[in-house]
Amino acid sequence: MTTVNMTVNGKAVSGNIPDNTLLSEFLRENLRLTGTHIGCDTSQCGACVVHINGMPVKSCSTLAVSLDGAEVLTIEGLTKGGKDAELHPMQVAFNDNHGLQCGFCTPGMIMTGIDMVKRYKAEGKDLTSDAIRAELEGNICRCTGYHNIVKSIEDAATKM
């Protein structure tokens, strides 16, 4: 067992966990942050994407003990202020553009989309639908055919 300390969604957390505990398991089981979904356990689907120190990472292939001192942002950390909190512009765009059906892949798509928009804006590059589709190669959706997901990210890019 190893003690791990990190900041998750702006709050200091710690846990005494087995060395082989995946970040996705730590978030879901230890912290009860169930918005991070587990779709494949092989880092193929992207449903488990979170931000670690500002970078998108598939939490199902990351050992929690390797993140001692890290800052982790999950889908739950995008909104602040309880039940009346404003949604993040990416969450609003997914809702407004019907970028989800079953919703299983949605947390990972949103977290990937946020990083994508931030990087393209920082680099001064145009975020085209082709670029979005290429960037989403690591995220699998079995319901939507991606059209409305792409529209959602394009919409959010204008509001972020």
Describe what this molecule looks like in 3D:
- The structure is a single chain.
- With 160 residues, the chain is of the alpha+beta class.
- It folds into 2 domains: 2-77, Beta-grasp domain (Ubiquitin-like (UB roll)); 82-159, DNA polymerase, domain 1.
- It has helices spanning 23-30, 89-96, 106-123, 129-135, 147-159, and strands spanning 2-8, 11-17, 49-52, 55-58, 71-73.
- A 5-stranded mixed beta sheet has the order 2-1-5-3-4, with helices on both faces.
- It is globular and about 45 Å long.
- The protein starts with a strand and ends with a helix.
- The relative contact order is 0.16.
Principal-axis shape equals globular
Runs in which pLDDT lies below 50 for 5 or more consecutive residues are none
End-to-end gap? 41 Å
Average pLDDT level: 92
N-to-C SSE string, H for helix and E for strand? EEHEEEHHHH
Quickly give the structural class.
alpha+beta
Examine the secondary-structure arrangement and name the CATH architecture of the largest domain.
Orthogonal Bundle
**How can the largest sheet be summarized?**
5 strands, mixed
* Radius of gyration over C-alpha positions, nearest whole angstrom: 16 Å
**Overall number of structural domains:** 2
Helical stretch count?
A: 5
Q: What is the total tally of β strands?
A: 5
CATH topology of the largest domain: DNA polymerase, domain 1
Main CATH class of the largest domain = Mainly Alpha
In percent, how much strand structure appears in the residues?
A: 15-25%
Name given to the CATH homologous superfamily of the largest domain: [2Fe-2S]-binding domain
Q: Strands of the largest sheet, in order across it?
A: 2-1-5-3-4
Helical content (DSSP H or I, runs of 4+): 25-40%
